[in-house]
Amino acid sequence: MIASFFRHLEEQGVRWLLVSGQATILYGAATFSEDIDLWVEPSETNLQCLLSALRASQAKYYKLTPALTPELANRHHGFHFTISDPTDSMPLFLDVMCCPPRVGSFAEAAQRARVFTTDWGALPTVGIADLVELKKTQRPRDYPIIGRLVLAHMSDVGGGSTENDLAWAANNIFSLPEFKQLLNEFPQVDVALSVADSLIRRAVDAWRTDGALSAELEDQLEDWFDARSAPLRKADRRFWRVVIDELRELRAGGQLIPQGTPV
Prior knowledge:
This protein is α+β, with helices and mostly antiparallel strands. It contains 11 helices and 9 strands.
């Protein structure tokens, strides 16, 4: 069913990128995702191609979905669908976004994308740096995943890591296990860390000396990482509040498509 859906996207010429859970799996930073999330170019022509692919897949609208128009797509709304197969009792849940936050245009992201060869076909997938930005959500559980994405990227570049790679890695670690792994695998990263911060300086010195951190220092670092991600979580919450308010207005005006309606 999933391979068939991706084949319909290709046949209709849809411009899309895989994002979120399935993308993190392909990069080796997660092991499970219940649905598929796509970033789709929000042009009218491309959205019509997407609708054709959805019809070919016998998709149905899922909850809280407005009409798939360029106007609403460019105002950051999400569009939700299910795809069912008579031979499978579990439907495929599909979420589509056209203008996700914290990243540039679709065209720019497409240039940075990576194509993975899978059992479902060749899947154009958002680049790992863009995926890191997309994962800076209001959900605390996303921040360890960001760290694992960072480590996956650093593992790929290995000994060829540049100062920019190290600085990017240092600025995108938000949890203790990933921080310790980064120090262990890339000890040279300490030059890019916030060494002026006394806590981080003590952590780096302890790791260099003992290869371990005290329980007290670990507790302090956990609090520091929570504080580091807090502004990002708040910013994401503020961003979506505007979209949710408009979604409420659409629902009050009867402008959401009833769940279960065929595309």
